[in-house]
């Protein structure tokens, strides 16, 4: 049972790491409300070091991978 849990966590981690590469390939802009209404959630990621810079992407739903305005 414990091995199954570890395998599931490893699969989820691999999927999460693969998502940014896919998201970068789909450069479209949607509003936060469109993302939520389409069944997605907004993921905010810090970019770079020093002065904070952020990217916002819609993950899931019909706007998966699109930039959120």
Structure commentary:
With 69 residues, the chain is α+β, with helices and mostly antiparallel strands. The chain has two helices and four strands. Helix content is 42%, strand content 26%. The strands form two sheets. A two-stranded parallel ribbon has the order 1-4. A two-stranded antiparallel sheet has the order 2-3. A hairpin with a 5-residue loop joins strand 2 (41-47) and strand 3 (53-59). It is flat, with a radius of gyration of 14 Å. The relative contact order is 0.22.
Give Rg in angstroms: 14 Å
What portion of residues belong to β-strands? Answer: 25-35%
Strand order of the largest sheet: 1-4
Q: End-to-end span in angstroms?
A: 43 Å
Average pLDDT rating: 75
The biggest sheet, with number of strands, parallel, antiparallel or mixed sense and barrel status, is:
2 strands, parallel
Large-scale geometry? flat
Tell me the layout of helices and strands.
Layout: H1 2-24, E1 29-30, H2 32-37, E2 41-47, E3 53-59, E4 67-68
Kindly list the characteristics that best describe this protein.
alpha+beta, 4 strands, 69 residues, two-stranded antiparallel sheet, 2 helices, two-stranded parallel ribbon
What is the structure about, briefly put?
This protein is α+β, with helices and mostly antiparallel strands and 69 residues long.
């Amino acid at each position: 049972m414990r091995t199954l849990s570890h395998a599931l966590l490893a699969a989820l981690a691999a999927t999460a790491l693969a998502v940014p590469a896919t998201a970068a390939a789909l450069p479209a802009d949607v509003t936060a409300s469109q993302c939520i209404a389409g069944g997605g959630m907004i993921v905010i990621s810090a970019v770079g070091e020093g002065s904070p810079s952020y990217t916002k992407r819609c993950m899931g739903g019909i706007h998966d991978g699109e930039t959120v305005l």
